[in-house]
Design brief:
mainly alpha; Multidrug-efflux Transporter Regulator, Chain: A, Domain 2; two-stranded antiparallel ribbon; 4 helices; 2 strands; 52% helix; 5% strand; globular; HTH_17; DNA-bd_dom_put_sf; SinI_DNA-bd; Helix-turn-helix domain-containing protein
Length: 77
């Protein structure tokens, strides 16, 4: 429907990104604020993420490398 087309054109909302990643909304916000998840902001200030960006982030976590290291990727020493 038009909502799906609109979401694919504009990107996923924070809630949709959270569902896609299987994490909470606050986790997506935190990862975005820390720069782990790259997206963009609409003129109204809402975060948007492409499915490709989210999938790249997950691949970076699974591979243990890349620039998309999440909190577990930090050296705690």
């Amino acid at each position: 429907m038009s909502t799906t087309n609109s979401a694919s054109r504009l990107g996923l909302t924070t809630s949709q990104a959270a569902a896609h990643l299987g994490v909470s909304l606050s986790t997506v916000r935190r990862w975005s604020d820390l720069g782990h998840l790259r997206g963009y902001r609409t003129p109204g200030g809402q975060r948007r993420f492409s499915v490709e960006q989210l999938d790249d982030f997950v691949r970076g976590l699974d591979g243990g490398g890349g620039t998309a290291a999440g909190p577990q990727g930090r050296d705690a020493r």
